[in-house]
């Protein structure tokens, strides 16, 4: 498609967008004096208009039934998480037995690493990306210390000097170098800073060849990337629900455990009664008997109100389908890149923009990270004052994430128009 940086062109693409009606399913912020152009679905997705109804149903059933809502509610709370399983499995490319929605992201990562990071002998090293999201760094550091080891057992890889992106060959080389010292590969599927998508299938194969377990934090990938976790053979993964999945601030998290681990009760874990064999759960017997699959990593009973918000969101994903979402993501992100390049060329005497996200659509999702050269935070502040909600990362990067379910091509044009105005 031959792009044009005009409002009329952007509106013409919107007219033929098969997902255009989904925009009306979301609330857009109204706090600003100008119309808000929202590009931070990679930090917090917009609220579906249906969310309040889904939550109200549970509040009404709580009022009507009290504790009996566990069995008499429209969606019985005893098995509430099961309403999410198949839909979430489709989003991440998994079998239903391999996924469960529960807890929060870092909690789930810790629970999974308790089971899958088992340092023994010289096989003690964890391989991760340098400058991962801080929560991941803290979790990995604490896991190493929990096993009585030092941070020397936490091995990082990063971009080469003078580069922004991490080369896949450098990751594979580091896996091979560590060899039989490598216990776990645990990285983010999409780098939160650059928006780089890692080749999870290739990394998983290399990690397994070295005899290591491979897991991913998919906070910036779930609902954004067309994932195939089962097919790729990933051992475990976890993701939050509040970014691309639009499921409320600090909302519930999902976890994936490959089915080859589904029926292994000998895997060490921190157990809780909601992960116990549900046929016998209320017998309150001693001796933990985990449910098969990812459900066996649950601890406490379902946080129903948070799960109701999540169900409202994943029902929209189920209606739209990840294939259609992915197709629009690639086209819209390419158009936004074109618009930014046009603005940069026209204003190169004042400010230029360097895209530090890969240009190859197979190596990125919806996020574009733009390095502003020539102007600093004042440019971002001016852009915000014009009604654009984006994200600033020091020292000079603007992160922009057009979400296919609710952003439009016209939004992308307006971003460029307002960016140029902010430069002035």
The figure for the number of domains is 2
Helix content: 25-40%
What does the oligomeric state look like here? single chain
Regarding CATH, which class of the largest domain? Alpha Beta
Would you list the SSEs in sequence order as H and E? HEHHHEHEHEHEHEHEEHHEEHEEEH
The CATH superfamily name of the largest domain is Type I PLP-dependent aspartate aminotransferase-like (Major domain)
What do we call the CATH topology of the largest domain? Aspartate Aminotransferase, domain 2
Q: What ranges have pLDDT less than 50 throughout 5 or more consecutive residues?
A: none
Rg (CA only): 22 Å
Secondary structure elements and pairings:
Blueprint: H1 7-15, E1 37-38, H2 51-65, H3 69-72, H4 82-92, E2 99-101, H5 105-116, E3 125-129, H6 134-146, E4 154-157, H7 168-178, E5 182-188, H8 200-209, E6 213-217, H9 229-232, E7 236-240, E8 253-257, H10 304-320, H11 322-346, E9 352-355, E10 368-373, H12 377-385, E11 388-389, E12 391-393, E13 397-400, H13 409-423
Parallel strand pairs: 1-11, 3-4, 3-5, 5-6, 6-7
Antiparallel strand pairs: 2-8, 7-8, 9-10, 10-13, 12-13
Helix pairs in contact: 1-13, 2-10, 4-10, 5-6, 7-8, 11-13, 12-13
